[in-house]
Amino acid sequence: MRWDNLAENTGEAGSGALFAADAVTTRTFDTPEFQGITFHEIRARSIVNRVPGASRMPFEWTVNPYRGCTHACVYCFARKTHSYLDLDTGLDFDSQIVVKVNAPELVRRELASSRWHGAHIAMGTNVDCYQRAEGRYRLMPGIIAALRDHANPFSILTKGTLILRDLELLRQAAEVAEVGISVSVGFVDLELWRTVEPGTPSPERRLDVVRTLSANGIDCGVLMAPVIPFLGDRPDQLRATVGAIAAAGATSVTPLVLHLRPGAREWFMRWLARHHPRLVGRYEQLYADGAYAPTWYQRAVTRRVHELAAESGIGPAHRGESRRIRAPQERSGPWPSIDGPGDTQLTLL
User: Fold this and answer.
1) Are 242 and 188 contacting, i.e. CB atoms less than 8 angstroms apart?
2) What does R_g of the chain's alpha carbons equal in angstroms?
3) Of 64, 220, 221, 324, which shows the fewest CB atoms inside 10 Å?
4) C-beta separation of 151 from 335 below 8 A
5) pLDDT in tens, 170-193
6) Which helix (H) or strand (E) covers residue 182, if one does?
7) SS3 letters for 268-331?
C-alpha cells in the first residue's frame, strides 16, 4: 500500500503528504459487523480541506474523517480516491477503511487558526461520516463540538442512522451557527436497495431519521440520490419515493441522477453486467459522453420530481442553502461533556 507523499486531489485539496507512513496502525475486529473489514488508523496532518475550483459542489470546504466506506454503494463516486493508495476501487474501497483518528483535535486546531475565517464546512460529501466505523471510533461528536465551540456553520449529508446519537450536539451547534442536515434516499425499492447499497440502513430506516429530526425541531432535507436510470426512474417509483419522503416530514427534496466517474464507473458496470445484463448497452449509450447522463434526461427527472414534491407540499432545496435549526444566539457557560456510551452500531434493517 502506498502511503508516502499522498496528497488528495479529488474532493479535497491538501498539499504534501497527508500523514507519514510510520503513523499507520492497521486493525481488524472480530465482531460480526466488521467481519472482513480492515481499518488503517492514521494521524492526519490536516482535515479542513478546500474543494477544487472545478468542482460542481456548492461549498468550498470539507471535513472527511474517513476514507473508503462500508456502505459499499456500487455507484459511489469517491471510489477513485482509493487508487491513490494502490488499493482497488471495488472491494478494497468497501473493506479497507482509512480512519483519521485525530480528526476532532485537528478540526479544533484548524478552526482556531488566525487564517480561518469561519466559512461553511460540508461533511459526508465524499464518504459517509456516519458509516458503521463511526460507531466504534466516535469521531463526529468531537468534530461537531469543535464546530459548535467556534460557532462555525456546517452541513452533514448521510445515509447513516447513527447521526441520531449526536442529536443533542447538533441542537447545541444550531444555537450558535447555521446547521444543515440532509439524508440521502434515492429510492424506496427494497430489492434495488439490497443489491446497490448493501451496507446501508434501509430507505425506511433513513426516513425514520428524517422523522426523528423533524420531531425534535430539526429541519431535514432529502437528497434524492441517486436516481438510477432504468432501475429507479419509472413514474411509479418516483412517485413512491417522493411520497415517502414527504410523509417523513422532509423540508425539501432535491433529485440527483446517477453519475459514473472513473473508478465508480468500472465497478458499477461490472455490477450491472452481473445483475442486469440487458441494460449494459443502454448505459453505454446513455453515458457515452462521460460521467453524467445527458442534460435532457437530468432535466426530465428533475422536473418530474419537483412536480411530485409540489403535489406533496415540499419543494427543492436552494443551491448551497443551510437549513437553520434554531436562530443563533449568544450563549454563556460551558457546554455539557460529549462523553457518552461506548461503541454504537448502525441498524441496517
Assistant:
1) no
2) 20
3) 324
4) no
5) 999 999 999 999 999 999 999 999
6) strand 179-184
7) HHHHHHHHCHHHHHHHHHHCCCCCECCHHHHHHHHHHHHHHHHHHCCECCCCCCCCCCCCCCCC
